[in-house]
């Protein structure tokens, strides 16, 4: 549904009024995310936003530590090409929980890799190489969700702000490339698919309208079966942004992404040869060594160890930039 700018502004104003005086500032673009997700129905958008604020409070999400230049916390996943932090990988560091390393061990590879033509960060995941059964066997749904929340908070509180600065406009969406190379029937594993459901439920409920484009490339015919299941879990608005592509994906990707920002294995020119694992490190593809957790990695379901998670509640440097700006008193 398209709305004129005036209608959009009126809806944003109405939604803002519904919340009255708050300690936090609800930015226009943020309110729009909820209005778009709920087809501009103010009552529904209000409900979703209330649920989001409540969920963030109940789960201490606002206190979740995120990596910055000031706190030098270890990264939860690899990043390339942002100004706010040097390029880096996930590494065995005592502040990382054992559960993150355990999940990451069985992932086919992931990286937050540079930006697209809209100025949005690009997240690349080598989905086809995920050891789906191992993830489902060795990790709990809670551990996967917590890891995902840690990554989401870093994306929205650190990377999106960096991209907004660079683009000179508000950036709150990410472009996603899921590479299905290597995908087979072994991935059609219901317990693993339920993890995808849990993760996409969280995103749609509490981080609505944060997807710019999603490309599923090298999709094999087996995937069509998986897709029929996954499709039912997604909002119509999300479905519109998804393109399923087989082997002929290069031209489509290059319309959205400058060649220098796209890895060579995806049809671009980037190799990130200065980094271990190149553009997308992967233990499964053996372009980086296997990372074994050690005794220093606490076995907890949170992304960081308990002491770091606790410090996030009181230490502003460890917590990093806020998700919501505090409202300035008049
Ligand atoms: Zn690269």
List keywords for this structure.
42% helix; Phosphatidylinositol Transfer Protein Sec14p; Helicase, Ruva Protein, domain 3; 330 residues; alpha/beta; two-stranded antiparallel ribbon; six-stranded mixed β-sheet; binds zinc ion
Describe this protein's structure.
This protein is globular. By secondary structure, the chain is α/β, with parallel strands linked by helices. Strands 2-3-4-5-6-7 form a 6-stranded mixed beta sheet. The mean pLDDT is 92. It contains 12 helices and 8 strands. The protein starts with a helix and ends with a strand. The structure holds zinc ion (ZN). Residues 80, 113, 263, 270, 272, 279 line the site of zinc ion.
Q: Note the main sheet.
A: 6 strands, mixed
List bound small molecules. zinc ion
Structural class: alpha/beta
- Supply the CATH architecture of the largest domain: 3-Layer(aba) Sandwich
Report strand %: 5-15%
The overall strand count is: 8
Pfam family, one: CRAL_TRIO
Protein name: CRAL-TRIO domain-containing protein
Domain CRAL-TRIO: 112-274
InterPro entries: CRAL-TRIO_dom, CRAL-TRIO_dom_sf, CRAL/TRIO_N_dom_sf, PI/PC_transfer
